[in-house]
Amino acid sequence: MLTFSVSDAKALWLKLTSSGVQTEPIAADDLFGKSFVFHDPDGNKFNAVEIV
């Protein structure tokens, strides 16, 4: 799975979700920060991570 480092996971999640992109809920972890998985139209999964 390809992982992207992002500066604001919640803002990106809101933008993707409102644009109709299939997303999974944001997960928060003390060690790894906030992250979520999203899917492209072909069903490929991508991970977005905001390091705290």
TrEMBL record:
Listed Gene3D superfamilies: 2,3-Dihydroxybiphenyl 1,2-Dioxygenase, domain 1 (3.10.180.10)
Classification via Pfam families: Glyoxalase
Segments forming domain Glyoxalase/fosfomycin resistance/dioxygenase: 2-46
Domain of life, per lineage: Bacteria
Protein name: Glyoxalase/fosfomycin resistance/dioxygenase domain-containing protein
